[in-house]
Design a protein that fits this description.
This protein is an alpha+beta fold. The chain has 5 helices and 16 strands.
Length: 261
């Protein structure tokens, strides 16, 4: 549906809920029911241990997708020294805040591993990607991040990592809005790969391909890591009384045999 655009531009914007409904002939009532379960899962996100004071909450799980059948299979957890089930995330040199470091996150809840809409989103995103033929005869690794930025007081800022234009180190990454409530900020910027480690305000405006704010549930975008860098600005509490929240599903794809990007 968007593969040619991804190949041509290096990024795409779309609405996962509407597109999945059309592609898989799923009615909106089914999508709403499945999505409500996803929303509930975000109420139980633990604090990101790598983001002290940054008002970030996170879970993460790994899966594989089989290109020849489109089957999604979740990978087992790692049990850490405290007996907790976790999944590890490694970006090599692509995250300057955690260069060549493994980060360990609590796994997604079992209900989410069984959520059919989440599986459809993984499959839909994968269908928008492009690969070498040799990659298509092996499982493709999938990382699924649930990330919430939440601010409860005026003056607080919730910050994503890394807080600059960056590449992720995986060939493709997709972002899906779950909830945006009483926040300002959260501006997404897509720019050239030459502008990594910079803030958007410090680069030539001609290097910026797009800037936008996600506002609707399941409004989405995807990037090809070889073609563009991307960034999201910090969020602050809005003028309402309730806490500010920006919750996202982030999904990345990595071949079994990793090649230099």
């Amino acid at each position: 549906m968007y593969k040619d655009e991804m190949l041509e531009k290096g990024f795409i914007r779309f609405h996962a809920g509407a597109d999945i409904g059309r592609l898989y002939s799923e009615d909106q009532a089914w999508i709403a029911e499945q999505f409500e379960a996803i929303e509930r899962a975000f109420e139980d996100l633990p604090m990101d241990a790598y983001a002290t004071g940054l008002h970030r909450y996170r879970r993460f799980s790994r899966a594989v997708i089989l290109p020849w059948s489109n089957q999604v299979e979740w990978l087992p957890a790692i049990v850490n020294e405290d007996g907790d089930e976790v999944a590890e995330y490694f970006q090599g040199a692509f995250n300057p805040e955690f260069k060549d470091a493994y980060r360990s996150f609590p796994m997604l809840q079992q209900e989410m591993l069984e959520n059919e809409l989440l599986k459809r989103i993984i499959q839909f995103d994968f269908a928008q990607t492009y690969w070498d033929k040799r990659d298509m005869v092996m499982p493709v690794n999938v990382g699924v991040h649930f990330v919430k930025l939440k601010v409860e007081r005026d003056g607080d800022a919730a910050v994503s990592s890394p807080n600059c234009l960056h590449r992720d180190g995986e060939p493709f990454t997709f972002a899906h809005l779950v909830r945006r409530q009483n926040v300002v900020g959260g501006l997404n910027v897509i720019a050239t790969v030459d502008d990594v480690d910079q803030l958007p305000g410090a680069i030539d405006t001609g290097h910026i391909f797009a800037d936008f704010v996600l506002t609707e549930a399941l409004e989405s975008y995807g990037v090809a890591d070889v073609a563009v860098s991307h960034y999201v600005s910090a969020v602050h509490k809005g003028t309402g009384d309730e806490a500010g929240e920006r919750s996202m599903i982030l999904i990345d794809y990595q071949p079994t045999v990793v090649k230099p990007l």
